[in-house]
Amino acid sequence: MAEEENQKQKGRFPKLSGTKNIFKNVIGVWKNTTDKLQNLLPKINKITRSLSVSDEQVAEILATVKKELPTTEALLIGKPQAGKSSIVRGLTGVSSEIIGQGFRPHTQNTNRYAYPSEDLPLLIFTDTVGLGDVEQGTETIIQELDTELGNNSDRANIIILTVKINDFALDTLKQIATKLRHKYPQIPCLLVVTCLHEVYPQQVIDHPSYPPDYREINQLFTVLKENFSQLCDRAILIDFTLEEDAYNPIFYGLEALRDTLAQLLPEAESKAIYQLLDQGAGEQISNLYRDTARRYIIAFSTIAATLAAVPLPFATMPVLTALQVSLVGLLGKLYGQNLNPSQAGGIVSTIAGGFLAQAVGRELIKFIPGMGSIIAASWAAAYTWALGEGACVYFGDLMGGKKPDPQKIQLVMEKAFQSAQERFN
To answer: Helices 317-334 and 281-308 meet at what angle, rounded to 10?
Structure first.
């Protein structure tokens, strides 16, 4: 019995000794890893700084893209409540709240809204504010619009006169249009007649097939076209309403407006408007920057792979997280969003979604002898790449005046992750 107990005691010590050895090995690996990370961090910081985008570089990128951008400037001339902001909504797909916040005072009598941004505008709307049928301020408005057109000779311009179908107090509008048309006969002018539902027959509760064929609308439209026949190249009917107005479709006559603009504008500008309406601007604007952004995404992904190859689980997660936050902050700056680290980190959390659990799984893989770190490095690079692609979609939507769609971002990240895994393997 005593001998058996003695053997048990003897058997315990090798186990205890082995445990001590394991702890010594872990401590040794930890110290070695920490030393490597401490030596590596200054190099990573240096590389990250070299990949940062300065204000001068951003300005240069924007200037290059801007030169190739088919920008159209639309002068919206009409009384308040004549449907000018509705035209902006219809052509851009941006909500009324965002448009309301986007218009900025441009001159004494005009506001300006650049879509999707001032840095890279595809459409610029200059809206005359407070325009009434009075003489006071008319000459000032004409002078301001004259200056606007003179300064924008390098881009496509169009004058859009907005008139409610039942409004005939239009002397000031005709005076402004006459003077501008006389000085700039080469700039197309479009008469847009709005608010059709205000003169629908009493029993009509929805829009008819386009164009509407009601006697009163036809009569009023004929009179308005005659009044502006010497000033406008085309005249169309539209009725852009809000959802709560319960008219369907909301943008009644949008196709007619699109097609008419295509006829009046140069080819490049008309194609841009078609693409805005058919494909959605957020994706287009994102693509404008995507090639430039990938230059930084691939560099950060390579650094992430190098860091993730460190064999000790969880030792590199804080550094990788900081690296990925830096990437998102850099991409934000490229897209015109200046973010502090906390804000960039919040965006990472927002768009990463279910990838976080996989990140932990990536670290646990390191416990697999031999292959763990290789797999982790490939995963880290692919995840960083996917995060960068997702950030491009996120910032592209913001530039397009749209709320980022989490599901769309997740799909983009999943596809990017699979593609990047094949690349980095």
So the answer is: 150
Distance CA 77, CA 313 (A): 65
Other Cβ atoms less than 10 A from the Cβ of 419: the count is 14
DSSP 15-56: HHHHHHHHHHHHHHHHHHHHHHHHHHHHHHHHHHHHH---HH
pLDDT for 361 beyond 70: no
Q: Give percent above pLDDT 90 in the chain.
A: 24
Q: How far is Cα 312 from Cα 319, in angstroms, rounded to an integer?
A: 13
In terms of DSSP H, where are the helices of 313-405? 317-334, 341-352, 355-364, 372-399
Considering the chain, what is the average pLDDT of its residues? Answer: 74
Q: Which residues contact 312 (CB under 8 A, 6 or more apart)?
A: 29, 30, 33, 366
What's the token pair of residue 102?
Answer: 């986007």
CA 91/CA 88 separation, integer angstroms: 5
Which residues make beta-bridge pairs with 107?
none
Q: Quote the pLDDT of residue 164.
A: 96
Beta bridge partners of 239: 252
Q: Which two tokens stand for residue 151?
A: 């300064």
CA distance 207 to 176: 32
Q: What is the pLDDT of residues 28-70, one digit of tens each?
A: 544 454 454 445 545 545 544 555 555 566 566 666 666 767 7
- pLDDT surpasses 70 at 308: no
Query: Is the whole-model pTM more than 0.90?
Result: no
CA separation for the pair 205, 238 (Å, rounded): 16
Q: What does residue 79 show for φ and ψ, rounded to 5 degrees?
A: -70, 160
Q: At 54, phi and psi to the nearest 5?
A: -75, 165
> Residue 292: what pLDDT?
66
Residue 135: predicted pLDDT = 52
For residue 387, CA distances in Å to 328, 360, 398 come to 8, 16, 17
Query: Domain-by-domain residue ranges, the chain?
Result: 38-61+282-424, 71-265
Q: Which CATH superfamily is domain 71-265 in?
A: P-loop containing nucleotide triphosphate hydrolases (3.40.50.300)
Count CB-CB contacts under 10 A for residue 156: 21
Alpha-carbon distances, residue 122 vs 102, 112, 237, 356, 359 (angstroms)? 14, 13, 24, 37, 39
Most confident among 2-16, 245-259, 293-307 (mean pLDDT): 245-259
Burial of 320 (0-12, 13-18, 19+ CB in 10 A): buried
